[in-house]
Amino acid sequence: MRQRTDLVPTAALIAGALLALAFAQPHATAAVTDVPGWRLTWHDEFDGDSLDQSKWEALNRRDSYNNEKQYYHPDQVAVADGMLQITAIDEPRDGKDYQSGIITSREIFGPGRFEARMDLPTTQGMWPAFWLNANHVDWPKGGEIDILENRGSQPELTSSAYHWQTNPGPCCNQHQYVFEEYTATEGGEPVNFHSGFHTYAAEWDATLLRFYVDGNLHFTVTETPNRPIFETAKNIILNVAVGGHFGGDPNGSTEFPQTMYVDYVRYWNRITAAELSGDYNADGQVDATDYTVWRDSLGSTGLGLAADGSGNGEVGASDYVVWRQNYGATSSATATVPAPGGLAVLAAAALTLCYGRSPRKN
């Protein structure tokens, strides 16, 4: 979240001073933004100097799928400069002409919102992808959700798809799929998805899939009797394939190495009305940690804010009241309820008068 800059200076200074006095500690800006109607529950910002092995596995395997030409090796996966980097190289390995990288999440995820911010490789034969697959069941029993696929030869076009099983039987699994391609213009010119970072997202509900590029809804898949939306939990997968049926093989114009950069991967659960009032961190109990969530987001405005207990689109004194009234609702432990004090209430009022912090993507 970023603060607006078109503020009345005096009011902003007063509000800031009141907040400092009320809480007596610096306010840390959240590393990730709110998404209206959703609560962030898992993410990787790739801020370290190596792949987080607790979240991801970099696979070491020789694929025979889709007539692809790469060997996936962990050496082609790196984390540096705040980004995941998956690099395809023109070096043979174990009978394959090229090497590249693929990572899969160790955790499996149910319906929710998935988003990645990515900078794609650009040359003939590259096939970058951000997708969901149920690795623990035989494909395509769990369904496959392709949030982003791209051909290295088509910088102005991306695509999304959904695959599902049909006619399961003892000998084979048949499947069908639907897909949609996406293009955009900016200033009258086609958007180049190989130039700079773009966001790719999917919202997966029980009977519906929505696909987004840079916040623009471009494809919706609804469940029908012949097209089920499988709720089987899925792994998050990021990879760069080389060659294959989707985008064709490298040729004389292909340049190596080619790297896909990923700024972050994030997963949200949908916020529902059935959630416990005052449970601002969604851990199943109303306790002191929820007060911290309220305190740190005081003055924020927008839809779906975790600490907006009153549902009025802003985090203020009324949301403290909601938390206080429900404190200990699911916990047998007793504790002293922290009081915000008059200064915090005044700060909330001052913030309401002079500005609000609204969610926005970076």
TrEMBL record:
Signal peptide per UniProt: 1-30
Enzyme Commission (EC) number: 3.2.1.73
Family in the record: Belongs to the glycosyl hydrolase 16 family.
Keywords: Glycosidase, Hydrolase, Signal
PROSITE patterns tied to this protein: GH16_2
One of the GO biological process terms: polysaccharide catabolic process
GO molecular function: licheninase activity
Domain GH16 residues, every copy: 28-273
Organism in which the protein naturally occurs: Posidoniimonas corsicana
Name this polypeptide is given: Beta-glucanase
Pfam families according to UniProt: Glyco_hydro_16 (PF00722)
InterPro entries the record matches: Beta-glucanase-like (IPR000757), ConA-like_dom_sf (IPR013320), Dockerin_dom_sf (IPR036439), Glycosyl_Hydrlase_16 (IPR050546)
